[in-house]
Amino acid sequence: MAIDLQTVLNSNSRLASVKTPLVALFVGATSGIGLGALKEFAQHATDPRVYIVARNVKTAGSIVDELRALNPRGQYEIIEKNVSLIKDAEAVAEFVKAKESSLDLLFLSVGFVSLDGRQDTTEGLDASMTTRYYSRLRISQLLLPLLNRATSPHVVSILAGGMEGSLQEDDLGLRQARNWSVARASVHSATMGTLALEKLAAENPHVSFVHAYPGMVSTPLFDRLASGVAGLLLRWLVVPVIRLFSRSVAEAGQRSLFLATSTRYSVDDGIVALGAVQTGGSGGALQRGARSNGGKGIFLVNASGYIADNEKVLAPLRMKDMERKVWEHTAAVFNSVR
Ligand SMILES: NC(=O)c1ccc[n+]([C@@H]2O[C@H](COP(=O)([O-])OP(=O)(O)OC[C@H]3O[C@@H](n4cnc5c(N)ncnc54)[C@H](OP(=O)(O)O)[C@@H]3O)[C@@H](O)[C@H]2O)c1
Is 30 touching ligand 1 by the criterion CB < 6 Å? Predict the structure, then answer.
């Protein structure tokens, strides 16, 4: 059974007692789970300064209007970039660095799954893997100096925490056509994501890193699964059934903000506890969860909000030095787009 929603909502509402203005960057919040989390954050944070990455500033304008209606005291700024390109991901980080000296929350939910096959970007990379892995990692890496200056910084990646799998070790980027498949691109994005975030966590013990699987959530992701006739059939026949068993965007957003702020997923007392310090309360925090890699890694979280244990997959990968190999591959990819 999932963590009781009332517990989640009570915790989220405590954000209102955090009087220091929180600074957040949302990547992937023009839709779906990210948008749900963004609205929940705007509603509860006192004077937030929020940056939202959007592919099209015009279509994202209505989101800012909605956020202003939820919380007129917040400041909201759209960064018009397409992070299916690593260069754009780098520009996003530079934009925030030019404006802010610290960052409390980096929320990453950008990405898609396409049954249409591999889509190469102008950087020669698979767009689904770039949005779900390379660009998420690049932004996290470049913003570490700002994150390290925040009181209780959090990086939350919504993808497939706890669902890591085996890697095509001689082709981590799945560049060979015979190696690429929808499933493998998803497994590589999730597994490399966990291993790379574990490395960042080890080097940045002040920052809480969360990689979560959100469960099935009723978002536009399913409508975009395929184009053409296959897409129509999916949208008419399959997606309505999926939606019957899916969580709402609002609830997924509420649960995601909980991941980003509660003690349960924090190396310290969590963002909600910052308010408790000011008000003299206890913070009402739940017990802290265990991190991966024997407590040195990240918070891997399943759809119910509990810590996921996938050591049977991850431990052998670490034994094979895959963390270093994934990082070397990733650094080479980052260098290749320079
Ligand atoms: N929904 C689920 O049941 C579920 C389950 C497990 C994992 N996930 C993962 O969770 C993450 C969020 O999913 P969601 O359901 O919230 O998806 P969503 O509603 O489709 O939102 C995805 C976000 O990513 C952006 N995006 C999509 N394709 C892009 C591209 N080619 N280039 C740049 N940006 C792109 C979208 O921007 P635009 O608004 O501009 O399109 C949007 O901001 C995804 O990585 C998904 O794989 C979802």
Answer: yes
